[in-house]
């Protein structure tokens, strides 16, 4: 019999390519927000204020993501995973492409940041429907004993998308002058997303519906309003899922968006040098996701997530001092350690979150929990970290990670108790 990965190759590629494209789109915005969006789109009296406004626009997509989760979850639980995933990818792709053609504040005044925020909201809506569907595509096709390893495949889209996004920014920084990059070079990654979206759509249009969803439809009619069913019968479970994902978002966005902005401003590192350090560190996220996926199938996803949360709590105590050390080697060690730990609070989520919900509301439940947790851990992370670093230096920034680890640990305990009550 062929290896399960080979047997389900097309399904796994569809879940991976889609999330890689979506996360590429999301990360090029994060990178541009840290590097150029402040002065280009937001008038302000100081560079620090411009950066704060830029990060506020970055956080806007996280506000949109739960709305996208409800919207796409509704159709994903009623008409199927495949068509919903295609629609979410198209919305994300069009929003990203249009950012490439935006006028700056100098050209159009306040219309420029308004249009930027509208398209950023569109990005968030698309991504809100993406992750849950991609995770379900993988785990609902997994053979027995392979759910965590299948579920980790869409998670690998995060580092792949990040490498593609920051690798392109690094390449542009090497071939363009700073003036050329600010004038027009930053638009190229947004234009390039059209190619990746086309690839993602081509793969996704060739897949079939998941067997678990098809079976659920045969047994009963779809839920009329999935979000209503979720809030009525699965509220505590949803809250536990929201809390459980906070840590992975906090680690990622402090290690990428905030660290890049801090490293190139307060620490004074060259942009290309710091991007290269982050690209080397992100490989440890890939390693962490794979190790966590394998461990989750051999023990349990909940157990691996619990260990990751404990490590996140400890990470907060050393992350700040390492980032502010003044040594690029220590910065790289801090980022690598953080992203490796992130693999243990992110990799198993592809299997763990869908397992909390029955197939009838699984798309909505997984998507709402994941994206609402993103507001707490992701939208607030660069903004709060910037304020904390202004107040108490990078040591204070690490405390945000410690709090995020405690939040996620609480979510896992809640989920365990909720499951014990429903299965006495």
Describe, in plain words, how this protein is organized in 3D.
Helix content is 84%, strand content 0%. It has 424 residues and is mainly α. The chain starts with a helix and ends with a helix. The radius of gyration is 20 Å and the shape is globular. The protein has one domain (4-422): Growth Hormone, Chain: A (Up-down Bundle).
By CATH, the topology is Growth Hormone, Chain: A
- Summing up helix and strand content along with how strands pair, one would put the structural category as mainly alpha
Give the helix level as a range of percent: over 70%
Low-pLDDT stretches: none
Describe the SSE topology.
Blueprint: H1 4-7, H2 9-41, H3 47-78, H4 81-99, H5 105-108, H6 111-139, H7 147-155, H8 157-175, H9 178-183, H10 188-204, H11 211-219, H12 226-233, H13 235-244, H14 246-264, H15 271-298, H16 301-323, H17 328-346, H18 349-355, H19 362-422
